């Protein structure tokens, strides 16, 4: 099936749209004389006053029926029922009951899974995807088939490589995850502080990264997490999502943290999310969890009224919850009458699956695919030399597999077989019936195909039967006999052998990395509806790869004596504990975080950078021995403001192809301090820059000292280590000394 709707289909949908009746107003219908003069229906009144007016008109019985995802209608006030639960992880999805596809909206653009898009390290791309998804969501809302509250994105840290839902996340680095969260949320919600295009939700707060492993499930797991790891790893993406992205909602998780369910922990929710981070929105429970402002499930609607009668909570508590949810609905314009009168009221079927949206899905896949190996270099293949290509593997003709989980119905698909077929004649063999690859019955035809072709492309890896929500992996190797198939095909191949991997989580493919017969390896993640076209474009050089791995690829041995239930991030030599993610692990790797090759070659030169930066301190505190011996000051005792380090980096493309470079900047704390904080290095900045062949571009990099050069002590206190910080930009190393501006009156 082609990856775009035909003009004829688009015309038919447009005619259907004009002949059908769009959504009636959710509330405040201009034709309803009973509500026209009520304050909650008047757009000229401040939203806070409108919400107060509406709550004041409700009985307790009516109020409690609004505390659940399928909120009840209020006919006497002209308010319809509303389903809060919709999903838009990487495109409008029908996973939640709030969104349905129908004849007018048969599909929506399905972008690459988040782990793939994160590999682009391109914040402007993430925001652009959010804008497209919210366009399509608004169009479907206008047509009566979707809601306006989307419980996306998932910004949990991909802590353990076996986690089945790691594919939904932006990876293992907290700054990367936080930047993704803020960018995607801005795209979804828009940038008007008082109005929302749609309402996003960052989930699942917090320390949630285990679904079902070795008899332990997410519903009963008690995550034992240190204050240090909470502050400098698990909470960072959520803080950035709320503080920088201004997200309208946070979802708490199923698990407990240190013995307390996250959905019932006032320190996490009231003190942190609302207090410190200033959430302007509502907190929702994960489905059938405990419940806060809004319960995904029936519990609050069934039991709240009785709880008020028994004095377990007050009606004022119920009112507070309703203020948070109703304010979001008001900001969405749901109480402003006719949807067609809204700024997005013109959106309809013509705005869903439109060519520009599908082109962006293709571009996102191209940017997210990572070139792991290119011996020779043999890649890209040439249509002039490689006339016939054997396309082999259980994912070689994949369609639905490419969109991962929490997906909807895609506009259409281009499979890898179809994509490669645009460049060369193909000989297709599965080799394995599916990714489980339990036997070698289909090996023979696959091997024979490789013997005949000018080049061989194996498309292997995983799918949702191996990694998914409720399904954690047991190991990192390719399933079943996939490795055997790859090795035998490579040995028999007449031409170069290219291995393409679809997966959310990392794979131990050391055998392929070390096999000289396998000259190229690509990781495509789950590349979305246009994934096959993107793979082919990179294999044949129409697109130049620039993606970087957002997770560490560990060897299988890494998992030895490493339970998923062990939450500690930092390594412990005495306990034989290896540590987790590139920030705390320095053992053997298949491929490191940030690895990714290109068809050209970029060289960095540091054009300008400071060598000494003064950190201004609050002047009313007295130093003590502890503070001086650790040579680190509390962030709260520094005058952070806009205290930043600005670098100017020249990026030169010395190759023969135009390319887009992913500039990653890491920081390592002062010598000696690294051991004290148990930190190897951490990502502090990343930029995307397009450079023509033989050309050069200067890139400005801004590093906020307090946010990005700080570390966290064992008490969970964020501090700035004084002394020489080492900045790593590719092969370039630069030292910046952080010095107190007026030491002598600080307090630890």
Summarize model confidence as the mean pLDDT: 93
Report the CATH C-level class of the largest domain.
Alpha Beta
CATH fold description of the largest domain? TIM Barrel
The total count of strands amounts to 27
Low-confidence stretches: 622-629, 743-748
**Strand residues, percent:** 15-25%
Q: Percent range for helical residues? A: 25-40%
Integer-rounded radius of gyration: 27 Å
Distance between the termini: 64 Å
What is the count of helical runs? 21
Q: What is the 3D shape?
A: globular
> At the fourth CATH level, what is the homologous superfamily of the largest domain?
Glycoside hydrolase, family 3, N-terminal domain
Number of domains: 3
Biggest pleated-sheet summary: 6 strands, mixed
Domain Fibronectin type III-like: 661-733
Keywords: Glycosidase, Hydrolase, Signal
Protein name: Beta-D-xylosidase 2
Signal peptide: 1-22
């Amino acid at each position: 099936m082609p990856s775009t709707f035909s003009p004829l289909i688009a015309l038919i949908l447009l005619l259907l749209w004009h002949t059908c009746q769009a959504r009636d107003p959710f509330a405040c219908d201009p034709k309803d004389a009973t509500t026209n003069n009520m304050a909650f229906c008047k757009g000229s009144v401040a939203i806070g006053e409108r919400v107060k007016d509406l709550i004041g008109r409700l009985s307790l019985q009516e109020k409690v029926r609004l505390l659940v995802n399928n909120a009840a209608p209020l006919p006497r006030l002209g308010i319809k029922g509303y389903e809060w639960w919709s999903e838009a992880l990487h495109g409008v999805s029908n996973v939640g009951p709030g969104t349905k596809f129908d004849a007018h909206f048969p599909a929506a653009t399905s972008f690459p899974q988040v782990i793939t898009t994160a590999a682009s390290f391109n914040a402007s791309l993430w925001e652009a995807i959010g804008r497209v998804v919210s366009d399509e969501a608004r169009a479907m809302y206008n047509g009566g088939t979707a809601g306006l509250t989307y419980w996306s994105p998932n910004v949990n840290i991909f802590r353990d490589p076996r986690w089945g839902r790691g594919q939904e996340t932006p990876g293992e680095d907290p700054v990367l995850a936080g930047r993704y969260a803020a960018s995607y949320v801005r795209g979804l919600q828009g940038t008007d502080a008082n109005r929302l295009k749609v309402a996003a939700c960052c989930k699942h707060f917090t320390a949630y990264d285990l679904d079902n492993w070795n008899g332990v499930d997410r519903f009963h797991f008690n995550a034992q997490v240190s204050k240090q790891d909470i502050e400098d790893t698990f909470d960072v993406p959520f803080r950035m999502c709320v503080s920088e992205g201004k997200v309208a909602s946070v979802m708490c998780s199923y698990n407990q943290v240190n013995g307390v369910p996250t959905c019932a922990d006032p320190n996490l929710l009231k003190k942190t999310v609302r207090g410190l981070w200033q959430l302007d929105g509502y907190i929702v429970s994960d489905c059938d969890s405990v419940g806060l402002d809004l319960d995904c499930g029936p519990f609050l609607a069934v039991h709240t009224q009785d709880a008020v009668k028994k004095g377990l909570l007050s009606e004022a508590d119920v009112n507070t919850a309703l203020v948070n949810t109703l304010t979001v609905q008001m900001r969405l314009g749901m109480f402003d009458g006719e949807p067609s009168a809204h700024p997005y009221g013109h959106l309809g079927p013509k705005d869903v699956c439109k060519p520009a949206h599908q082109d962006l899905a293709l571009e996102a896949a191209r940017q997210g695919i990572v070139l792991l190996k290119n011996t020779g270099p043999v890649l890209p293949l040439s249509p002039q030399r490689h006339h016939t290509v054997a396309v082999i593997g259980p994912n070689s003709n994949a369609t639905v597999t490419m969109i991962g989980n929490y997906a909807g119905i895609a506009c259409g698909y281009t499979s890898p077989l179809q994509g490669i077929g645009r460049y060369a004649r193909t000989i297709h063999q599965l080799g394995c019936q599916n990714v489980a690859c339990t036997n070698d019955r289909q090996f023979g035809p696959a091997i024979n195909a490789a013997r005949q072709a000018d080049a061989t492309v194996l498309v292997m890896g995983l799918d949702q039967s191996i990694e998914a929500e409720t399904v954690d992996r047991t190991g990192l190797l390719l399933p079943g006999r996939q490795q055997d198939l790859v090795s035998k095909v490579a040995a028999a191949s007449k031409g170069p052998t290219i291995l393409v991997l679809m997966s959310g989580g990392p794979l131990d493919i050391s055998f392929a990395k070390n096999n000289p017969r396998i000259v190229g390896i690509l990781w495509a993640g789950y590349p979305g509806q246009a994934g096959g076209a993107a793979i082919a474009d990179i294999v044949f050089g129409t697109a130049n790869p620039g993606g970087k791995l957002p997770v560490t690829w560990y060897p299988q041995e890494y998992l030895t004596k490493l339970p998923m239930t062990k939450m500690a991030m930092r390594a412990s030599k005495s306990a034989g504990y290896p540590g987790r993610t590139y920030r705390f692990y320095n053992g053997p790797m298949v491929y490191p975080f940030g690895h990714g090759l290109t068809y050209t070659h970029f060289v960095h030169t540091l054009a300008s950078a400071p060598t000494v930066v003064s950190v201004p301190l609050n002047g009313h505190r007295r130093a003590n021995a502890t503070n001086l011996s650790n040579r680190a000051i509390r962030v709260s005792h520094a005058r952070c403001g806009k205290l930043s380090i600005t670098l100017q980096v020249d990026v030169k493309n010395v190759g023969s192809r135009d390319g887009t470079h992913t500039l990653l900047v890491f920081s390592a704390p002062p010598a000696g301090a690294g051991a004290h904080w148990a930190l190897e290095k951490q990502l502090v900045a990343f930029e995307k820059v397009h450079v023509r062949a033989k050309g050069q571009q200067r890139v400005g990099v801004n590093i906020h000292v307090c946010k990005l050069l700080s570390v966290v002590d064992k008490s969970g206190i964020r501090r700035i280590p004084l002394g020489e910080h080492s900045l790593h930009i590719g092969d370039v190393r630069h030292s910046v000394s952080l010095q107190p501006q007026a030491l002598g009156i600080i307090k630890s």
